[in-house]
Every structure is written in structure tokens, then in C-alpha cells.
Amino acid sequence: MKMEQVSNNCYAVLNEKNRVCDANSGLINIGGGMVIDTQSDLPHAQAMINMFSRVWTGMPEKVVNTHEDSDHVYGNQLFGSAQIIGHRSLPERMKLVADPDEFQHMIDAAQSVTIGSQLKAAHPGVFAAAKQIAEDYEFRGVHLVPPSVLFDDRLKVVLDDVEVHIIHVGPCHQAGDSIVWLPRERVLFAGDVLFRLCTPMGWVGSFNKWYQALDMIINELKPDVIVPGHGPVCGLDGVHEMKSYLQYVEKESRIHFDDGRSASEAARRIDLGPYADWLCPERIYMNVERAYREFRSEPQDKPWDKPETFDEIYGVAITRGLTPTF
Ligand SMILES: [Zn+2]
């Protein structure tokens, strides 16, 4: 974990391994302080607070959750009386997708001598994912603290004289996807609307909505610096690349769909092209499956069977001769 200053008043804390739980956080160190996203577990949240405390005094008065996923909200409880801001969908969505007990049980099962081998046999992907996550994270002691300040489309907050625009752009990666934009500093905290140098994962939403969000960043906001939800700090090149990736996967998926292949088969076959070097290329399965769901006109919020999804990602890795990474 490291901290980077990205503008006069903005900082990022980055988890360099850039795997599934390795989300980034942001800090704006004026006007009482605002933290963007609170990490995947309490030790990481505390480490982030310690890093940010080098450039702020006291605890921040505001926290923004860019969306409902566990890796962006599990540190909320460490921020005491801070206002927590998020899209109106977050309180309900967090209960649905970010149950800390569910994740801890998965890790405990994988670590258990007796249950671990059964889990490995039944769900090799779940087992491998749990083993990987347990290397860095543990969810004991986490309880969900939902945002207390909810907004629908946009919320403007002024820190001293610096405007911060929190804009709901979802659902593209998740229902609550919101970005945090500081026009004067030309900095964007993109949440998981942007994955950098790692394969994006989408849960709720559509390809078109995701393109719209990326186009808004490219054509309207034009930030100089972007802190993605996952991966290193970048500029607009990162946004262009991710849009190209999604377009490519959507196009390739259509070909395999029309040829009657399953999403699982397509995910094993699609040439990764220039994206083969991105971390966790096997996560392509989720993007193909989402494209298939759209081709079949299924609801955007159709729930994911998590064990099946982890197993499919694992299977894609094995077929491609990769060490499974989530
Ligand atoms: Zn994330």
C-alpha cells in the first residue's frame, strides 16, 4: 500500500497488487477532509488512515462510497461521526452484496483442514479465490455502516472554496456507481467505473451505460489525473483503453453468441489481444456473461451465483494455462 499526491489537495492510497480486493482510496485534505472509499477490511482501512494522517490533521468530516461493493465500504465504521455519502441505492445494495459474514465464512472454509478439501473438490474457484483473499484480508469485526447522506443524480459539496461534484453514473459496474470530480484540481476519483491494467468486472448494469460514463469522462470532464477504483493513477489514456476493452469483448461475445457457444466457452476462446497482459485476464468470463445476458434481454440486476462465477473464472484460467488470479 502506498500514498501518492495527485494534485494540490488530493491524494490516493493504492494497493499495488491490484487483485480483487485491492481497491484504492482517495483523500481531499481541505474543508474538514473527505475520504473516498474505505478499503476492504479494518487493517487496510486503518493503514490508509495512518497514511493519510501524514497530510491531514484529525479525522475527515466526510466519506464518499463510490458504490456498494465490500472493497469500498468495509472501513466505514472507523470514521466515527463523519458524514458518509453515497447513492440512494447503497444501503439496500450493501446488504445484498457486501455481507462480511459471507466472505469470512468463505475464507474460514478454505482454511479449514476438514471442510477445505471438500470445498476445493466442489468449488475449485471459490477455494482458490478464498485462499488468495486470505493472503491479505480478513473480514472479522467488520459491520456494515451504510451512507447516511444519500443522493440521486448529483451532489455538490464545497470544501473551503473547492467544489467537489459527486455524480451517479451507474449502473455500469454496480448499481450505485458514482464518480467524484474536482473541476478546479482537474482530478477524478472514478471508483470502479475505471479499472486500470487489470481486467474489469461488472455486476449490475449494461455495456452502453458503461460507455456513457466513460464518454462523459472523456468528452465532458476531461480530467488531468484519474484515480481508478483499481490499479495505478492514470490519465484519459486509461479511460480510452478500458472503453476499447469493453467494446472488444462485447463484439467478440456477439460472434460466439451467434455461433451458439456458451459464455463459458466464449470466455475460454476469445483472443485477449492487447489485454492479455492485464492482471486477472480470466475475469473476462464476467464481461462475456454480462454481454450474453444483454443479448438475451435479461434484467441488468439479475443476481450472480458467486460460487459458479468464481468456478468459471478459475476454469478460464486453467484452460488458458494461467495460474488463477482473482
Ligand atoms: Zn472494487
What would the keywords be for this entry?
326 residues, alpha/beta, Metallo-beta-lactamase, Chain A, seven-stranded mixed sheet, five-stranded mixed sheet, 11 helices, 12 strands, 18% strand, binds zinc ion
Structure report:
- By secondary structure, the chain is an alpha/beta fold.
- It folds into 3 domains: 2-91 and 144-235, Metallo-beta-lactamase, Chain A; 97-136, no CATH class; 244-319, no CATH class.
- It is 40% helix and 18% strand.
- The protein has 11 helices and 12 strands.
- The strands form 2 sheets. A 7-stranded mixed beta sheet has the order 1-2-3-4-5-6-7, with helices on one face. It has a 5-stranded mixed beta sheet with strand order 8-9-10-11-12, with helices on one face.
- Strand 3 (25-28) and strand 4 form a beta hairpin.
- Helix 8 crosses helix 9, helix 8 crosses helix 10 and helix 9 runs parallel beside helix 11 (306-319).
- The radius of gyration is 19 Å and the shape is globular.
- The mean pLDDT is 97.
- The site of zinc ion (ZN) has 7 residues, from helix 2 and strand 12.
How is the topology of this model organized?
Elements: E1 2-5, E2 10-14, E3 25-28, E4 34-36, H1 42-52, E5 62-64, H2 70-73, E6 83-87, H3 90-97, H4 100-111, H5 113-122, H6 124-136, E7 149-151, E8 154-159, E9 162-168, E10 178-182, E11 187-195, H7 207-221, E12 225-230, H8 236-258, H9 263-269, H10 284-295, H11 306-319
